[in-house]
């Protein structure tokens, strides 16, 4: 079980450091917590959380180790700070910044090669759901991102199902909708590898998670926690941690 927070383009380094200190009070038992600050706050947050039960992730990375890529950041830069996880293929990267499945696959490979763990995001848009092609979209995203990833490497990948229509909209997938896609994701992973890999892989839900809807989501059999946006920026994240404690007891 994993509770991950994606802070997106929020919090200055000073604000991030203050909030990271606040998170040290979170009760953590039986699950993992990951926070993903902006690049400028990574060093400050990693220093605060070093030695704690909370791990640090980055929100993005370039697939090349170095080069003439103005404004980008490499896996080695992140690793030296103490970053252990990297969000790859978030819908905002796909739809705002034009990242395609080929680029996302390269990023998954780069993160794994650096002995770090990718949090691979998949999910359909509102139009794709209305057309009834959710499963087709999610399967395509999964298969392309995991192409060339070995069975042993697959155990290091965390998948996050984030329906695009629910991210930052206040609309959350029903527990039944989320469970249906999570179960499908496990079936696809079983086809690509085997059932053992599928059952061992953490699959998170993301999309307008709040303390008021979190419990009904994470008690579903194939939902292993959440990748949280807005509710990871304040005291709500501590509330989500308390809910995780209840479920993991």
Provide a brief overview of the structure.
The protein has 249 residues and is α/β, with parallel strands linked by helices. It is built from 12 helices and 8 strands. α1 (13-23) runs parallel beside α2.
Structural account:
The chain is built from 12 helices and 8 strands. The protein has 249 residues and is an alpha/beta fold. It has a single domain (2-248), classed as TIM Barrel (Alpha-Beta Barrel), CATH 3.20.20. The longest helix has 18 residues, at 175-192. The chain is globular. The termini are close together.
Question: Strand count, sense and closure of the main sheet?
Answer: 8 strands, parallel
Broad CATH class: Alpha Beta
- Low-confidence regions: none
Major beta sheet, strand line-up: 7-6-5-4-3-2-1-8
Architecture per CATH nomenclature, i.e. the level-2 architecture: Alpha-Beta Barrel
Write down the secondary-structure element order.
Answer: EHEHEHEHHEHHHEHHEHEH
Using the CA coordinates, give the radius of gyration.
Answer: 17 Å
The proportion of residues forming helix, as a percent range, comes to 40-55%
Calculate the mean pLDDT score and round it.
96
CATH homologous superfamily caption: Aldolase class I
* Beta strand count: 8
Distance between the termini: 12 Å
Question: Which structural class fits the helix and strand makeup?
Answer: alpha/beta
CATH fold call: TIM Barrel
Which range does the strand content fall in? 5-15%
């Amino acid at each position: 079980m994993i509770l991950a927070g994606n802070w997106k383009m929020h919090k200055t380094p000073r604000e991030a450091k203050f909030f990271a200190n606040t998170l040290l009070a979170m009760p953590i038992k039986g699950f993992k917590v990951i926070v993903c600050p902006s690049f400028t706050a990574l060093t400050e947050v990693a220093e605060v959380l070093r030695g704690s039960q909370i791990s640090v992730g980055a929100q993005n990375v370039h697939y090349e180790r170095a080069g003439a890529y103005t404004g980008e950041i490499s896996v080695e830069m992140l690793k030296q700070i103490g970053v252990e996880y990297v969000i790859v293929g978030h819908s905002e990267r796909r739809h705002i910044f034009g990242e395609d499945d080929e680029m996302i696959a390269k990023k998954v490979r780069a993160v794994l090669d650096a002995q770090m763990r990718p949090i691979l995001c998949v999910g359909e848009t509102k139009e794709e759901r209305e057309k009834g092609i959710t499963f087709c979209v999610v399967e395509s995203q999964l298969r392309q991102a995991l192409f060339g990833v070995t069975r042993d490497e697959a155990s290091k990948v965390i998948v996050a199902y984030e329906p695009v229509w629910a991210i930052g909209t206040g609309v959350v997938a029903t527990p039944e909708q989320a469970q249906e896609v999570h179960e499908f994701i496990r079936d696809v992973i079983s086809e690509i590898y085997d059932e053992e890999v599928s059952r061992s892989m953490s699959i998170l839900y993301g999309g307008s998670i709040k303390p008021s809807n979190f419990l009904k989501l994470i008690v579903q059999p194939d939902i292993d926690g959440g990748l949280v946006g807005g509710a990871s920026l304040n005291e709500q994240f501590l509330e989500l941690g308390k809910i995780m404690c209840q479920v993991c007891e």
